[in-house]
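User: Before I run my own analysis I want an independent prediction to cross-check against. Here's the chain; please return only the C-alpha cells and, at the end, one sentence I can use as a sanity check.
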Amino acid sequence: MTGFNLDFSKAQQGNEIKDGTYEVIINKAVENATKSGAEFIDIDLIVRNDVQQQFQNKHIFPKIWKAKATGKYNEGMIMAIAQALQLEDGKSYNGFDELLADFVLKPVLVRVKTEESNGYKNVNVKSWEKTNTTGPVNHQFKNGDEPSFGPSREPAPTAKEDDLPF
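Assistant: C-alpha cells:
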C-alpha cells in the first residue's frame, strides 16, 4: 500500500474558484441563447497551467447578454475584451462569429468575484486586462478541453505532418 499525505492548501470543492486575479486562456467564444431565446456571448476561460497560480485548469464561464431594450451587445464591453486580448485595433471581420473565433486561444488576465443572484452563486469576471506573462503560451489542454473556433463548438482540427505545406 502506498502512503498518502494530506495537504489542505490544495483543498477544492466542485468548480469553485476564489475571488482574485488569474491568467486564463480563452477556450471557446460563441453566441448562444437560453431556451426562452435570450441571446448571449458564451465564453469558456481556463485558468492557465503554464503559469504558477492556484486553480489551474478550472473553468470560468462569463456571459455577455444582449440588452433587452436594444437587442444589442454592450459594444464597450466587447471592445474592452478585444483590447485586453491585444487584437489589432481597426481590424475588420466578415461577421461576428469570425470576431469571436479570433478570441480563442488568446491569453488574458481576469479579475473574478463570486456573487449571488436569484439564489445562485456565480463567478463573474469583473475586469479584463492584458496578460502579464511574456513569451509563448504553453498551456496544456486536458482531454475534452480542446478549443473551439465556432458556433458548431467543434474542436479545432488537428494538423498532421502530411497536411503542412512546408
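Sanity check: The longest helix spans residues 75-84.
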